[in-house]
Design brief:
Length: 193
């Protein structure tokens, strides 16, 4: 299912997750399936389905980094639905829990995802300077841990913020860089954003 999601083969991903759900024999296994179903729905902008799946996953006993990654996505959905203040409050709370993640790489990945979404939301309400700072920091963290897909997706957020500043040449370069990485990785889903 995850591979099909990466390649934007949504029906195939749904079928794989349905099969995995049938095979899940523990609450945590079911939660993992829900987590990945939630990510698929999130990527497809099916936000009601994403919220339901990510909330179910978060209550299933999955690893804390997955719970917090889910929460970041839920905060972003809240922002997209017009409740940026609520999203920022959620992100503030999530930020206080990142230290609970024991694995250093997962903790850094979560810090980067958190900074990217926080920066994107912040740019909408508090001005682009702070938002750009946070998103640039996120891209640097992703680069430092070798997470090229995360870095490329964060560069898409950076380009979005830059569109409101008139920095067209920088934006064009960033979009070219992100597009090249996502194409190389075969991440069709992120290219469609």
């Amino acid at each position: 299912g995850r591979l099909h999601t990466l390649h934007a083969l949504h029906e195939e991903a749904e079928a794989a997750f349905a099969k995995a759900a049938d095979l899940a024999s523990t609450r945590v296994q079911s939660g993992l399936v829900e987590y990945h179903r939630g990510l698929l729905s999130y990527n497809r902008a099916e936000y009601d389905k994403a919220v339901d799946a990510l909330e179910r996953a978060s209550g299933s006993g999955i690893a804390i980094h997955m719970v917090l990654h889910s929460s970041v996505r839920l905060a972003f959905i809240r922002h997209l639905r017009g409740d940026t203040a609520g999203a920022l409050a959620m992100l503030e709370s999530i930020g206080t829990r990142i230290g609970e993640v024991a694995d250093a790489v997962e903790r850094r990945r979560l810090e980067a995802q958190h900074a990217s979404i926080l920066g994107f939301c912040t740019a909408q309400v508090q001005g682009t300077a702070r938002g750009l700072q946070l998103v640039r920091s996120a891209a640097g963290i992703f680069e430092s841990i070798g997470d090229r897909p995360g870095q490329a997706r964060t560069l898409l957020n950076l380009a979005s913020i830059l569109s409101s500043t008139g920095a067209w040449e920088e934006r064009r370069g960033i979009l070219t860089e992100a597009g090249a990485v996502l194409t190389e990785l075969g991440d069709i889903q992120s290219l469609m954003v």
